[in-house]
Amino acid sequence: MSIEVKVSELPESVADGTLVSWLRQPGDTVKAGEPLAELETDKVVLELFAPVDGVLGPQLRGKGETVRRGDVIAVIDESATVGTATLELAPLETTSSSGQPRKPATPQMGAPVPPVPPAGRVTEPDETNGLAPAVRRLLEEHRLSPADITGSGPRGRITKEDVLRHLDHSPQLTARIGEATPVVTLSGRGAAAESERLVSRPTTRVKMSRLRARIAERMLEAQRSAAILTTFSEVNLQALTDLRQQYRDAFAARHGAKLGIMGFFVRACAEALRRYPIINASIDGDEIVYHGYFDIGVAVSTSRGLVVPILRDADTMSLAEIERAIAQFRHRGEEGKLGIDELVGGTFSISNGGVFGSMLSTPILNPPQSAILGLHRVEPRPIAEGNQVVVRPMMYTALSYDHRIIDGREAVLFLVAIKELIEDPNRFILQV
Description:
The protein is of the alpha+beta class. It has helices at 133-141, 160-169, 188-199, 210-225, 238-255, 262-275, 319-335, 408-423, 426-430, and strands spanning 2-7, 16-22, 29-30, 35-40, 45-49, 54-59, 66-68, 72-77, 84-87, 89-91, 172-175, 184-187, 228-236, 282-284, 287-289, 296-298, 300-302, 305-307, 310-311, 348-352, 371-375, 379-385, 388-402.
């Protein structure tokens, strides 16, 4: 019997998602709890699991389609249970780049599973929906038919390399350049030279992921809705560097975490926010909202894009707790396992472009927050200490803030407070 499988309730505040890939294909045997597909929302990627044992039948939704809760996306044939099942959702490890599924018309319930084409053969040359955008573009540019090319990909799928290999061995090349340009036919050395020129300038169009589109939307929102201004400072990290070198091994052995600089900056920000609460505030209509807590977001770069998980009540966390939490954020962010509740909220953010070598930048606000601190590369530079010029590990810091509610005075004093705390770590102990 055929069982409809539906998308279950999506996480709170998420209305829909994009089906980014199918992990199993029609005709595959699946077991209950086995992942079938990947669904990307604005914040996380979810894995959709099979609710029953059986054979996966027709897929009713294809890659790139938007689905909502309750949508039927596939059919599973099983012999023991009859009814309607619901797919469970769980955070996904990584966003898959599996092949494009075929998008069939709505099938009749219980219809037989279509046979899998043998490797190296294209059984439906007129159908290009299953080809990657780069492959379709090459076929169109060179006026080629999929039936003329032997595919080397999974299930005989044509890859970009297959098309290029076909062009290399083709005795004649036909290219159309622009709509108003006549067709030019080349052969021999001219065809080889033109083929090499075209192949050497590849262009690929890839639709933005939901996460990347959401990042773009929020960045534009921040630029449109806030009067962003950035002020800078310079911090001498010599004392902090000496402290880390002295206690690095003991700290790791005791707490199971690396003694980095981010923990100190989080603690410094929490203390500076306590002194200057306007930096921790936000705008709601014509009101200023002062937050009595310090939920600090830490920007984490992953292969899928930038995410900003939140350290809740950061002022109550120890250095070890902060370092362990950041390490977990980084690992789980790369695997796509961060929960939505870990990415929403936050009263202030820290972005460390220095890990990528950035010397100076002007970070963009994370709405509705009113300020964000940018950290940069630690660079040995000569500075004056008393009557001497010495070389010290220096870092530029940048505070971008909403000038509608934060004046330059508060912004500068906030950076000065951070500078004092980082340059003299004993202040953390004495709370001065």
